[in-house]
Amino acid sequence: MKELIQTIVKPLVDHPEDVQVTVNEEDEKTIYSLTVNKSDMGKVIGKQGRVAKAIRTVVYAAGSSQHKKIYLEISE
């Protein structure tokens, strides 16, 4: 899943070397924290959050086979 997020996000940003994904697994949920360069935040979020919503939709669909709730957090 971590590789999927990186594959989606790296072509969108100007600084792909700054893209980092960390995983925090708990009992019933998995939280993926996406960190990008401060100047790339607008590109990852998109107008009215459309790009971020699309990324989350793909991640949630890919993770539906797991029996855990998946969350994607985007931060600087």
TrEMBL record:
Record-given protein name: RNA-binding protein KhpA
> Tell me, what does this protein do in biology?
A probable RNA chaperone. Forms a complex with KhpB which binds to cellular RNA and controls its expression. Plays a role in peptidoglycan (PG) homeostasis and cell length regulation.
Record CDD domains: KH-II_YlqC-like (cd22533)
The lineage's top-level taxon is Bacteria
Quote the SUPFAM superfamilies the UniProt record gives. Answer: Prokaryotic type KH domain (KH-domain type II)
> What is the scientific name of the source organism?
Peribacillus deserti
Family note: Belongs to the KhpA RNA-binding protein family.
- Per the record, the gene is khpA
Q: In its keyword annotation, does this UniProt entry include Zinc?
A: no
Cite the record's note on assembly: Forms a complex with KhpB.
Subcellular location(s): the record lists: Cytoplasm
Q: What are the entry keywords?
A: Cell shape, Cell wall biogenesis/degradation, Chaperone, Cytoplasm, RNA-binding
